[in-house]
Amino acid sequence: MPFFFVQLLKNQDIGRCYPIKNFPTYKYLFLIVFVFPLTFPVLKAQPKTENKNKPFKYIRFIKDNNDVRRKIEFWDSLRNVKITELDLNKAHPFINLSENVVGYDELDSLPIFRVPVDKVKNLRLKIWSDKYNLRNPDDKDPVKIVLRKDFSYNSQNCTAVFYAAQTLSGNKIISTRGVIVAYNKKGEVYFRSENLDLDLGQPQITDDGRYLCCLTGGYYGEGRTSNVTPGCLVLDLQNGKILHFEQGNNFNGIGFIGCHYFGALKNLDKVKACEYEILNCDEKIIHSLRLTFEKSSELMEQTCTGFKFKDKQTGKVYYKLYNPDFITKKMQIDEK
After folding, report:
1. Closest by CA position to 231, among listed 247, 244, 214
2. Residue ranges per structural domain of the chain
3. How far is CA 219 from the centre of its chain?
C-alpha cells in the first residue's frame, strides 16, 4: 500500500470534525479514493422502480374490402397484443331470428327474414300500424324483418353499438326493436339496454364513456323511412337515463366536440341558414347559434368554450363564445 495511505489510516485525526476550510487535504483524498467508490456498487444494486402505469389500451375499427367497418379490435399497445375482437354481424342479437332468409342488406350484409307472426310477437314488435294503416292486425302472413346496426367510432377509449330489428310492410318500417351495448377499451361490456322502441343512428360517445348522443328516425334509402320521428337523443350511460330527446327537427348530423359536449346541426333553410346546438351534458343545457351561409366567413373550429371563425377577406380570426354569444336553454324530453 502506498506510504501516504498507511499514514492516513494511522492518523488519529480521522474521526474528528473539521471545518471545511481546515479539513486536511489528504482526508479529501481518502473520501474520494476509498469511500465514494464503495458506494457505487450499492447504488447500482438498487432495484429499478417498476412502471406502475397501466398499459394504454385502444380500439381499432376494421374495414372490409368495401370500405365498411365490420369489426372492432381492442388492443394493449404497451405489449402490442390484441385483447379481443368483436364481429359486429355475429354479435347482432337478432342474427338468428329465423332460418327463412330471403336476402341480405347490400351495405351491412345482414340477413333479411320472413318471420312468422308469433315469433314477431315474442320480440314485442308490432306487425301492423294504426298510424300508417299498412297491415291488417288479423293478417297471419309472415312478416318481413330487416336488421341494422350502427356504432360510434369517434373515441379510442370506448364504443357504443346499436342493434335493431325492424318490421316492414312494403318499404315502410312499422316498428323497431333496439339494443344498445357499450364497450370499454378492454372490450368489456359496461352498459346494455334492451327492448328499446327507438331507431338510433350516428352514435357519438364521450371519451370517458359517460354520455351517448344519437340521431333518431330518418330515411334509409330505397323508400325505407323510419317509424320513429327524426330527432336527437342524449343518454347517460352511467344510469341509463335519457337526458335529452328533441323530436320533429331536421338534424343534419351530430359530432363529439370534447369534454362532455356534443354538437348537433339543424337545417333551417337549405339555402340561407342553419342552427348549431351544443349539448352540455354536465349542466344539462343547450347552447344554440343560428348562422347564415356566408361566403365571407369560415367556421374553423368548435371547442368546449365556443366557435372559432375566420374572415376570408381579411384573414382575421374571431370567436363566438357559448356564454354570452349563444342562446341557452335547458335540455328537454319530448313526449310524442
Report:
1. 247
2. 3-44, 57-195, 275-336
3. 24
The CB-side HSE value for 99 (13 A sphere, CA atoms) comes to: 0
Do residues 199 and 125 touch, judged by C-beta distance below 8 A? no
Q: Tell which residue, 112, 210, 216, 116, has the closest CA to residue 165.
A: 112
Integer Cα distance of 264 and 276 in angstroms? 6
User: pLDDT for 69-112, tens place per residue?
Assistant: 888 999 988 888 999 999 999 999 989 888 889 998 887 889 89
Rounded to whole angstroms, how far apart are CA atoms 151 and 160? 6
> Over the stretch 58-69, which tens digit does the pLDDT of each residue have?
888 887 777 778
Number of H helices, E strands in the chain: 5, 23
Instruction: Please give the Cα distance from 259 to 166 (Å, whole number).
Output: 34
Give the integer Cα–Cα distance in Å for 232 and 29: 79
Indicate the pTM of the whole model. Answer: 0.74
Identify the CA nearest to 268 among candidates 238, 291, 246. Answer: 291
Compute CA distances 201 → 11, 94, 234, 267, whole Å. Answer: 89, 18, 12, 18
Residues 6+ apart with CB under 8 A from 100: 113, 114, 115, 142
Task: Kindly report the three-state secondary structure assignment for every residue of 222-272.
Answer: CCEECCCCCEEEEEECCCCEEEEEEECCCEEEEEEEECCEEEEEEEEECCC
Contact 272, 221 (CB under 8 A): no
* Cell numbers describing residue 51: 412502471
